[in-house]
Amino acid sequence: MEHRTVRDALAGITFLAVANFVAITTEVLPVGLLPQLADGLGVPESTAGLLVSVYAFVVAACAVPLTLLTRRLARKPLLLTTVVVYAVANVLAAVAPTFGVVVAARTLGGLGHALFFSVSIAYAARLVSPLYTGRAVTLVTTGGTFGFVLGVPLSTSLGAAVGWRWSFAVLAGVCALTALLVARLLPPVGVEQVAPGGSPHRGRSRLGIVVGTNTLLFVGQYTVYTFVSLLLLATGLTEAAVGPALLVFGALGIVGLWAAARYLDRRPRALTLATVGVMVLALVVLGLALPQRLPVLVAAAVWLAAFGAVPAAFQTLALRARGASADVAGAFVNATSNLGIGLGAAVGAVVVAGPGLPALAWTGAAAMAAAGVVVLVARRAFPRDPAR
């Protein structure tokens, strides 16, 4: 791969980005379909929200073990297997006769997701020479951002128009097409050599702080985001308008991604603190403003725009902690992100069933504020100078 640029590897990077798109869309698809899922399966909306929790807890439990167990297997067949698993899981969800079968389908999808990201990110890095690794990884992960920007809103709109089962069925078709493209056109890469020896204690401590803070942020995010459709409906927005609203919010996440690309290599600490502070403030305003439509929409837009910087920031911070190899550090970020998603969805379900929607936003803000305190205190894990 010496001297291989992003342009040289653009086809492979594009297919990996598409795979990231279907991965993220599969993970968060139920978020925009909660009312339809609840009605169609005969369960409360708070229970339907647990479909996000089940998926996320499977990823959290399995990401690191599966990454370690499969690190000597050929990369392309392994990546292809994970995409096929997404397709099968979405087909099962589309035809599921009961809520229990949908849970089983989500569990299967979670197993594929547990392995997908550590494989795909390392794959992207190996398609190019080391000089271009950062650019290649950024382009691949942009596919996941577009899962939020386009995948979920379009699937939500489709579900509102013709039923939630069609959203899963269409996504299954997209996954199958992606698997075909990966099988035929993605160039193979070699198996990454496992680095000998252990990590320094200080590096492991920094990594632990980073991924622990990542967990808190995702708890706060998904306490609220899992039930964002309910928040929008509470303002008087119609079900048909929820999909377009999520499309706009997802697009605003690109603002956060741009901020991460611009400042993460120069001012990582300032970027992280600013991102967390903006999200906390926006969620507090959202909770106070309910059910007034305009301030809720503005607050939600600001909150989700800021969150766009979080995944890239914490992936980079975890790598810079030097507490584990790149694939294992990535697996820890994947695991803790999904632990946070699962816990957040579960906490949100309790809050929705109890105190109600305004408390949902405040609970999410509290978890994010706790993460902000850790960033303030742990200067070694969140350094001002990225070279430290």
From TrEMBL:
One Pfam family in the UniProt entry: MFS_1
Membrane topology: Multi-pass membrane protein
UniProt KW keywords: Cell membrane, Membrane, Transmembrane, Transmembrane helix
Domain Major facilitator superfamily (MFS) profile: 12-382
Source organism superkingdom: Bacteria
Cellular location(s): Cell membrane
Record flagged with keyword Transmembrane helix: yes
Membrane-crossing residue ranges in chain numbering: 12-34, 46-66, 78-105, 111-129, 136-154, 166-186, 207-234, 240-259, 271-290, 296-319, 331-353, 359-378
Keyword Transferase attributed: no
PANTHER family: CHLORAMPHENICOL EFFLUX PUMP RV0191 (PTHR43124:SF3), PURINE EFFLUX PUMP PBUE (PTHR43124)
Name this protein carries in UniProt: MFS transporter
Taxonomic lineage from the root: Bacteria, Bacillati, Actinomycetota, Actinomycetes, Micrococcales
